[in-house]
Amino acid sequence: GITKKEEARGFFRFRPLSYGKQYWPPILEAAKKDGAKYLIYEQDMSYTNTPIQNAKLSIDYLKG
Q1: Quick check: 18 and 59 in contact, CB under 8 A?
Q2: What are the CA-CA distances from residue 1 to residues 5, 8, 22, 35, 36 (Å)?
Q3: Within 10 A of 24 (CB to CB), how many other CB atoms are there?
Q4: Stronger pLDDT, 15 or 59, i.e. the higher one
């Protein structure tokens, strides 16, 4: 996630699922409740990881 120091200075960076400020459990629960068949997550440019690394982090989070 975002460190307190980064947050204090308004630091922004695209991050994999669960590594940023969005709290995903209620988003995922609402999607299930409403019968969503698919959820599409777009990962924009990352300055620290490759696209494959970010995809793996996001998938690992979703798998629990």
Answers
A1: no
A2: 12, 13, 10, 29, 27
A3: 14
A4: 59
